[in-house]
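Dear H.,

Thanks for agreeing to be a second pair of eyes. The structure we're designing against is below in token form, covering all 373 positions.
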């Protein structure tokens, strides 16, 4: 064990966010006690607080190597592995902790999360029920129980769990968000919006809740507020997109529009590119390579279509593709609706005409042609 005054110094550094100071003290202690499990554990905690979860895992394993029955080391190891998405390992670590401490509700919660992510919802539900039998006031376990029931499409039971979580933690924004996600899955959109609004009221910087609320508003036709809120995608790590930074040239008046997220979004929202061209802009459209030829068929005079990864020509303005609906003030009645706005490239169309040609004997004259994608 570290000496009391040393432990107090480490905790003081951690309390004020001085992780480097805490690490320096702990490494000094380690020189005289290289196998002290508590010092090794605290080094893992410091790295975890710094966001270096992989390094934290290594330190927690060293603490366990020094003392295989160290409950706090197993506990922190399971949580760090869960945050890294190493769910099989998290399941094993939480199982070991439960062998040492069968009444540990937090270990059961971590185990339940791993089971959920491993697509084992029935086992996860049983695990959360075990945690709640030990600790009925465990709000996080009620939230996760509700989420698992949502996955099982048992929406009424899921909402009962979320109601219990909110009874225990009425000002917990995450509890309101998870209630909203369940209501959305149950297609109760008005109630889902109310719950999401409560989440962002309690925590205005809650990016996931803000983004979810924007999607709900878009789905229900509230385009004005929906597109305004959609910019929260840049702050929500789970969304497969990134806000890009570009150096702006001193000359030229061309606009770069770059695709984001998936191919479907590119196909859906490229209809806004001709609107820019119609306003006199010279548009450079950066698109996934698989769509480059198709995007060249957009009716946008002067359009340059570049594949993602190619060198870009100079431009002085840029806009992410999915920000164009907000920029154009899109409402339900102003969605660009001129169709078709894309056409099969002639070379590709000719190749498919040849591929699908009817044999000379006419045997396939009435055979159906079914496209799969």
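And this is the sequence the design step returned. I haven't edited it by hand at all.
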């Amino acid at each position: 064990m570290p000496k009391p005054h040393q432990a107090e110094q480490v905790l003081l550094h951690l309390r004020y966010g001085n992780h480097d100071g805490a690490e320096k003290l702990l490494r000094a202690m380690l020189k005289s006690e290289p196998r002290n499990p508590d010092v090794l554990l605290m080094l893992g905690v410091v790295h975890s607080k710094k966001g270096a979860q992989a390094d934290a895992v290594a330190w927690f394993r060293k603490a366990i190597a020094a003392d295989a029955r160290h409950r706090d080391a197993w506990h922190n190891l399971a949580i760090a592995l869960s945050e890294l998405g190493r769910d099989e390992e998290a399941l094993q670590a939480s199982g070991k902790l439960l062998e040492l401490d069968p009444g540990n509700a937090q270990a059961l919660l971590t185990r339940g999360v791993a089971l959920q992510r491993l697509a084992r919802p029935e086992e996860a539900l049983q695990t959360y029920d075990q945690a709640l039998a030990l600790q009925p006031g465990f709000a996080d376990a009620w939230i996760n129980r509700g989420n698992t029931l949502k996955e099982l499409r048992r929406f009424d039971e899921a909402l009962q769990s979320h109601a219990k979580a909110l009874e225990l933690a009425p000002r917990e924004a995450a509890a309101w968000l998870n209630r909203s996600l369940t209501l959305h899955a149950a297609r109760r959109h008005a109630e889902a919006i109310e719950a999401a609004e409560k989440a962002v009221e309690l925590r205005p910087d809650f990016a996931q809740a803000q983004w979810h609320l924007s999607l709900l508003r878009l789905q229900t036709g509230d385009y004005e507020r929906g597109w305004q809120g959609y910019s929260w995608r840049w702050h929500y790590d789970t969304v497969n997109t990134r806000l890009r930074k570009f150096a702006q040239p001193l000359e030229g008046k061309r606009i770069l529009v770059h695709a984001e997220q998936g191919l479907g979004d590119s196909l859906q929202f490229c209809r806004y590119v001709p609107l820019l061209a119609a306003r006199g802009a010279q548009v450079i459209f950066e698109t996934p390579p698989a769509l480059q030829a198709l995007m060249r068929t957009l009716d946008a005079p002067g359009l340059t279509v570049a594949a993602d990864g190619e060198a870009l020509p100079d431009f002085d303005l840029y806009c992410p593709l999915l920000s164009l609906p907000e920029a154009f003030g899109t409402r339900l009645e102003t969605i660009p609706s001129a169709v078709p706005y894309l056409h099969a490239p002639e070379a590709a169309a000719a190749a498919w005409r040849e591929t699908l040609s009817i044999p000379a004997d006419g045997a396939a004259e009435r055979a159906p042609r079914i496209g799969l994608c």
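Two observations from my side: The CA atoms of residues 74 and 96 lie 7 Å apart. The longest strand covers residues 282-287.

Warmly,
E.
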